[in-house]
Write a structure and sequence with these properties.
Elements: H1 9-17, E1 21-25, H2 32-36, E2 43-46, H3 50-58, H4 62-70, E3 76-81, H5 89-98, E4 102-108, H6 112-116, E5 127-131, H7 142-145, H8 148-154, H9 158-161, H10 166-189, H11 194-206, H12 214-221, H13 225-237, E6 241-244, E7 261-264, H14 267-274, H15 282-303, E8 309-315, E9 319-327, E10 330-336, H16 348-356, E11 363-367, E12 373-374, E13 379-383, H17 387-394
Parallel strand pairs: 1-4, 1-5, 2-3, 3-4, 10-11, 11-13
Antiparallel strand pairs: 6-7, 8-9, 9-10, 12-13
Amino acid sequence: MIQAQRSLRANIERSWNRGKSILLLGPRQTGKTTLAKTFDFDLAVQLLSSSLRREYEKNPDLILREVAALRLKRPAKILVDEIQKVPELMDSIQLLIDEKKAQFFITGSSARKLKQQADMNLLPGRVIFYRLDGLMLGELIEVQKQNIEELIYYGQLPEVVYSTELEQKSELLLSYVEVYLEEEIRKEAALRKLPDFYRFLEHAASHGSQVVSYSGIAQNIGVSHVTVKSYYELLETTLVADRIDPIITSKTRKKLVRSPRYLFFDLGVQRVAAGESAPLPKSVFGHYFECWVGLELLKITRARRMEISLHFWQDPQTAEVDWVLKKNQTYLPIEVKLATQVKASDAKHLRQFMREYDCPKGAIVVYTGQTRQLLDEAICVVPYHQLDAELARFL
């Protein structure tokens, strides 16, 4: 299978070469293990192996003896893959880092069990956290960059992207939803009422990125709003979805939306979990395109290690902006249009936002056309495949 050159690797390599340990988190099948294996290790602990996992579960201190047996005069370089399978290992890892006996490259597909490991306290400044997402558009080979319909429909998990047969792509996504989203998350969270969770998962996927009403969802699927909130938190801690909070500060507006939106980490996985098949109606495809832009913004800012957060802005009565990037107290509002042409009226909400907030770099409209344009001095119209380059100019 073709392997993409991951943008995150250069940053990880710099940290690794400085002697820092790495904690690389990301959803399953986004390429964490593949990326980790581009580095050299003295010891590799693959916790997806059930027999090996049982050994470390019975005796987490085993890794201390294995490092001692290497008899190295320098810190041992060690890979621990899928740490959430045995989070108790974090105590021994902490000790080895503290004593400068080992440098770790740790991968994981869930923050849930790591957070539950109460004694975990990796040394600040010595362990560097990175997040690996599905492939960004800029990481794809050229022939696939232009096919936005296929990317939206099948998503951007590496194995799915580089599968040549559409039937195989569909099978991979179906397997991901059935085996990982349903079975793995269920096991990890010890869920008892599985039908409730399955109904929630389908509802969350089919309404992905819409403003959430916990009580409304609770009524639809027949559970409490507390349960709905806990299910969304489960999607967050297992890295299946990102919570996107709204901008709620305003000197003039009293009724800004305060509820969050959630972005599924991959649109192919979301579509299959929602039970949606081809062809997607134009209105649904437009919503997915908006989600796709939001995901690209998350991927780009995380891969570039930008201190930027993603938000949205919505006044139910008068205006809304699809996405807003926030850096300190300045903003970059972004409107998304599933269209090959953009009119001045398409940017009216951006202008409203810019009148009320500090937007020193103006605003962006992302569309499906092919050329970069200016609506006026403050608003730039950008083809979706130039979004990464445009953010570099702005940020």
